[in-house]
């Protein structure tokens, strides 16, 4: 035993352990001996002779394998498929495992050997393809640079922006295949060709009038052409393109929302991260810059301060007297009334700007004044969305909430402001549009077009005409009064993500009236990426206080989901009067002109189908189909609830395994200390 201990000691301390002559049997002997003494192994083996029984089973494995090879080879196949470097054993054990694998390959037949080799080759090819595709992902190096200097929070904004670009690319493919392509190839000869006449100017590209109004950008261009079958015509293809855009967007957004909610629930209050995790596992190993490394230390320190601050706030809130609670609630009521008053004033300002733009926008003699009146509603909405969120942040600081609650309250008020301002503007546009307009859909599409254009222009000019000059003043005259008042610029992640969600909501709402709005969205998002990159790398300094909401994008994707619901509500509200007024508000342009609606077109298509198909469609759209659909949903949800409970039990078992692993570590430390004491006594 002493010889074994000395050899084991020399093998561990020697730098040439790879050429050790220690046999694999002795290695397995020590490994088995120490494993039998671990608390986790003893807890998992209530029977004393279980290890002996497993050894006998392993010794007779080859004989049993000859009788029933598939039965005895099952557990070994999973281990044999793992690389040797992933196996938790010493170098001699890995050599023995390699020899055993060679023997297994020699024992199996040719077909089994070929199947295993092909499976291994397919895995290697898939890994190589995955690595090659990961290198082709756009802006990968840029995102790593931003992550290394500013952390994961700022990187999440750019990842979210890239996701919106992918989403708009999918929209462009669908619209090009269903709407733009068939309308161009099968356009009727009775419509005049698209030409650029003398009355058109460059101003039309900003207002959406003239040449742009007659082009394929807007709804009025897409008319019935030579493709005029009952179930294959321009109106049906137009509806298929719009509904496919909305449906696929709903699937993708819901999927990302549920995945994010799953991670948030896992890391929520039920499985919260304690202080030890924040200290020992909170480091970001992607940071390369020394300044960013020092800042990460500050992040961890500030996070601990925030944790202690929240604990002290909870203690202080629990110790409030009745008078203090009444005073605080009265203060919050007053501040909420101020917030509601600000929201009401913002909505009235949007209404006033919309009325002024519709009345005086086209009657101004000078083109610059006309352009200003045409863009008055987008300017007003952008101004309101820029100023009020910062006022809400100041108001929340007086309401005596915790820091996390302050951020959440500010975000909720900002979400309501942005979506409600857009909804109020859409309502005013619908209700104030002239009934005798030539093409009301084009007029509504122009409003969404101007909102998208001005949103992009506001982002561009705010960076190059406000943020960058402010940075130059701070660098050139750091001790001036203006530099001290302006302060250092920081990239506010919540407000910037809110701007992205707002622009995507505008794109969804206007895609029916302006089918090429996703193309405009792609161009603006790509330019916004580089503009925001310049702003972050050149003008901003890293945030001194960690943003908790950056670790979960559930709220932002939920906002995207609300934008989709607003898009569906806008389409429903716009098409409901067409059925309730007996064609008085029917469209005079586009695919549904001449008293046609989407309901008439789909009804004509259904009537032209064979009788079994008509019966099937009527059944699927009737109330009788609702009962089996509800039953299927109940079964589907029940299966998911069962899986959730099973996963919860698995999580509890994993938590128990973590506890036992800590017990194993304590046991190994004690054993190591005992061996060291015995060795010191021998010497």
UniProtKB/TrEMBL annotation:
Recorded topology in the membrane: Multi-pass membrane protein
Region of interest: Disordered: 45-80
TMC domain sequence ranges: 439-550
InterPro entries: TMC, TMC_dom
Family membership noted in the UniProt record: Belongs to the TMC family.
Keyword Transmembrane helix: yes
Official protein name in the record: Transmembrane channel-like protein
Spans traversing the lipid bilayer: 163-186, 236-254, 329-354, 366-388, 409-428, 448-469, 510-531, 552-573, 624-641
GO CC terms: plasma membrane
Pfam family, one: TMC
Principal cellular location given in the protein's record: membrane
Annotated compartments: Membrane
Molecular function terms, GO-annotated: mechanosensitive monoatomic ion channel activity
This protein's UniProt keywords: Membrane, Transmembrane, Transmembrane helix
Keyword match S-adenosyl-L-methionine: no
